Amino acid sequence: MTGGGERAEWEGVSAPEVAGEDGAGRAGGPGEGLEIFVSVAERVRRSLDGASAGERLVARTLLANYPTAGLETATRLAERAGVSAPTVVRFVARLGFAGYRAFQQDLRDEIEARRASPLTLAQQVGAGGAPQSLRVSAGATFRQRLDESFAALSDPELEAVVDLLADPARRIALIGGRFSHILAEYLDLHLRLLRPGTRVLDPRPESLAAFSVDVGRRDVVVVFDYRRYQRDVVEFARRAHGRGAKVVLFTDPWLSPAAEAADLVIPVRVEAPSPFDSLVPALALVETVVAGVMARLGKEGEERLRQCEEIVGDVTVGKAVPLVFVLGLVGVALVAYGFVRLTRHFNHAGSVYALAGVTLGPRAGFFGGFALLGTYLFFAVCTLAATAVFTEAFAAAMGLSAHIPWSVVTVVAAVGAWAVNSRESRITARTLLIVEGVGIIGMLVLSAIIVIRTGAGNAPGGQTLDFSVFGLGDTTMSAVMTATVFAFLSWAGFEACASLGEETADPRRNVPRALAGSVLLTGGLYVLVMFAQTVGFGTDGKGVDRRTGSPTAALVAALVLAVAGDMILDLTGVPAFDAYYWFATLGVLCLLVAYAVAGAGVIAFILSGRGRIPRYEIVIPVLAIAYLCFVFYEQSVGQDSPLSYFPWVAAAWCLAGMAAVLAAPKLARRIGERLTAELTEPGDPATDPHENAVRV
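The line above is the sequence of DNA-binding MurR/RpiR family transcriptional regulator; the predicted structure tokens follow.
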């Protein structure tokens, strides 16, 4: 044996003799006449077709207790299987062995090959004789392994695998080992472009345990496991099989112990010119399976692939990212106009819902507040998850490899958030100002360095200043406008300074200035940083703490809910980035509804004439609402699962608020009036909701 158990031929038996009548393993085409290595386990598994009842009992006993059952005496194996010893001997001879002793010797050789470590393989490679051209020897080895692997493939099993993976009624879950997880991810990347319902499983025990509870007969579990097999992967395959899932195993010729739980087994050679097993034949087999799935899906697969390509094309704007943020700034400025106008007349800690309540009526204020509540809850989950994303990225950049669940980071972040927000508003504001200030200064310094070096022509990659990034170039306006949706997310929550109306000196003057300034200054910052990156890379006082003025109970409740949500996501195998993006999207969708309610309030306020605002300015909030509808639409159409569900989740939340208004109008009105009570100033009709509001 060489290279960890390799045998150029097995007892002189060629492909047709091992394959059986179904032609499995038959050498044809370029591999005509190949002597094919087929492991003992694979021969036993294939012998099930056409075997007698007694022989099938022997085969199943061997596979269920492989390889230890085969190392016992023929008499002991017969007792295990419930057959006679001569039946065992006949079965071994049917496999092609000269006798039971020869069968056991090959089995021992296989065990040595299965246990081969990189060190053992390195010693075998080093003893390979006179050196020759690496290019020639490696190329010959890989070609031989490919030819042998494909010649030994069973056509019926390969077709059965393709049928399972192409069945749209099936859910596909893929898992691999330390190295073979690459194959699971690679197959998933292709399958998700051709069909829905495919995912790579998180290998952590708690995530696999959660999936094991949910797995059932609709599922196909694809397992990649090669020698020095992973116990957790094998055990997971067994649990999945026990719950009725179809298990497809990609493994080596010696067969992973997961083979006993697999419905279909596809083995390939793994020997390589290095001390490490090769995934070249396995990768070629994955490509083959993808080709088969594509052929099986036909027009349906082509249509899904076309839709995916269109979506990718629509959101790819190339180097026009700065232009995207310029247009995003215009859209946000339209929305900000309403807040600037209203905060000149009203100031309240309630922000959106208070402004809607005083202009449209208390029930409309309740609805806007309910939408905003959804935003804050979803943002709490996504902000903590974002902290985990950046922490993971920082750890990776520093070369740290501690495998800590990302939900642990969210707990630490939540404690920090509580520590800051449980202090007086002035302390909290100063802390945030310092943190944000340091971050902004860092971005400005980095951007300046990039712009200076690219302008001077001495950038590391030879990049130069390119002001064409503010033009369309080869990008369509449709793609740019769609991308402004993502730019809009950068300004989400810009109206938060309006909630400091009760803490600000001369709020009717300073809050509008802060709103306008925050949008314009951050807009300038975003455009500058995106330009540098592009050229560089090519309510009332109830429930508040008497000392701090902060709603401590609400703060703790929000943080507990956010941490619990992130923990559930982590335990179910959702990566931190997905958790961040999912809940950011949900929060923004609810925020769009709240903004639209506030925009409708601006229209009502202008039409009332109480604020002495020229009526022609009504076009601005109308355009703002149109922009908000466009952003919501773009987040609702053409999205893949699970993103396609988020507009429905956000809509369901907002409709729940609407249902509360309709089901208990007096309660909603009473709550809304309490929320806006502090806005009322007798003698000023512009600020009196009973005089000013369009009743809703």
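Note on the example: The first strand starts at residue 171 and ends at 176. Residues 1-33, 539-544, 678-696 have pLDDT under 50 and may be disordered.
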